[in-house]
Amino acid sequence: MTFWIIQILNGLSFSMFLFLVAAGFTLIFGLMKIINIAHGSFYLLSAYIGLTILRATGNFLLATIIASVAAVVVGMAMQSLFLRRLHMKELQQVLLTFGFVLIIADVCLWIWGGNSFALPKPASLKGSVWVGNMVFPVYRLFVIVVGIIIGVGLWIFQEKTKFGAIIRAGVDDEEMLRGAGINVQLVFSGVFGLGALLAGIGGMIGGPFVGVFPGVDLTILLLALVVVIIGGIGSLKGAFVGSLFVGLIDNFGKALFPEISLFTLFAPMAIILAIKPTGIFGRIEE
Amino acid sequence: MKAAQIFKGKFVLLLLLAVPFLALPSFVSNYYVGLVIQILITAIFAMSLDILVGYTGLPSMGHAAYFGVAAYATGFLYFAGFNNFWVVFVVGLGVGGFTAALFGLLAIRARGPYFMLITLALSQVLWGIAFKWRSVTKGDDGLPGIKRPEIGMGVDLIPDPHFYYFTCAIFLIVFFALYILVHSPFGYALRGIRESESRMKSLGYNVWLYKYIAFIFAGAFAGMSGVLWVYYSGFVNPSNLGIDLSVRGLLMLILGGAGTMFGPAIGAAIIVLLENIVSGLTERWSLILGIIYVVVIMLFSEGITSIVKKVSRD
Predict the structure, then answer these.
(1) Is A161 inside a domain boundary?
(2) pLDDT score of A26 more than 70
(3) What are the phi and psi torsion angles at B110 (to 5°)?
């Protein structure tokens, strides 16, 4: 029994981390139809900046705020200075975001070198708790709580606020939104910033257990891709359910069948694509 | 008759172009011979991608997958003791085409950004497997030390000039194969699909099947370039499967011109030359390449692509 509870908690904490990195990716795609390949780069940048501030101050909250703001600034600059001029040119947009992947990765390599780092956990979350007769790290519980709070926050934001309604309208029919006198460019760069913020928070939350190293940007991108394809691209609900699905399956796969653990992440994606190409909550777009 | 004459004219022109290529190894050092080999192999990859992007209008984001599976197949076969080029070549072509056949089933139903997303995800999954399955692929260390094979009758490809002439020959064969492909009724149907899928459908074409076959062709040709690349460079690693290569192919098409015979080769030459020149000057090639992406996309999307869009809208 304890084994199952521990495994479920492990799976949930990985799921909530996945949700943090996939939610921003799916928001951006849903509204702008941009495949933001640089999504993992926001994670990379935020985790490195957070690391430097943590070393200087030891304050996890301060580091999170500064690192996420940095990710938001870079994301919004990318959107309003470059992507904005490539409206509806999907291929060019993707290639442009890839250019930023190279630039951000190489600048980070320049500054922080090629070593792998794990961010230190905040002191108050370093311990572990007893679950039955096994120990479970407090930090992983913290990740679950953060994921749920952000998930609920995003849901309220999208369903109950005016800005959320504007975004939902933009996903359905962007031209009508323009016609209604909304400054769509402002909405676009706002959502791009929100996506970058989520990836940036993901970098700080994931830093202590996923770590930060050259190449982690593309690893994070891959995780986000798998989650959104399973859950259905463009939908927050899809990203949440996809994250739970992938996180739990991956964890149980690793615990029960370690020899095939590599494929537990990818096999569900292939199966979903074969059965329902739009993902669990995806819509057919014409 | 007229078409045949035009073809003959182009053939003569190509033969004239071939003369400096044939004489090259006697005039320049092995470094430059290697550079041309890199360009030719990369050009085959870019040309195979152009079947999808330029002729069929399928913006594949994961074309490195077929290059990479063939590259790994070459590596595995080498360490299993196969040293005959033709066996490896056929297997490489086969796994490239087979992987494309598999991915095509999942991807071709989707369109536009969704198609891009699915092709990207599938190829990145292969990258992830190559990266993590250390017992088989050695992870990001890759498989080094792959020697060039023999091509029968005691001829081996180990000296650079040998490999150079051989690559030239394969390049020419691929070039003519693609020329025939895109000037066949099949090729014209692909262009029809690019211009208007619904029109082709109402004319009674099985659009899905045409796209699917184009996808498999493109995968097989990419597989070919993968085999050649491994024999040129001597090693395989996960970057042969990754997004870096897929997107670089797209950049070459934008630079050289998609949907043309020479465009992909021109784009490949520009990128390979730039890479070799810049990485000789600075360690920050990756940063420079990133800036090249940004500059090319920002300048070209105002110029050439907007003209193309205007034309295709009329």
Answers:
(1) yes
(2) yes
(3) -90, 165
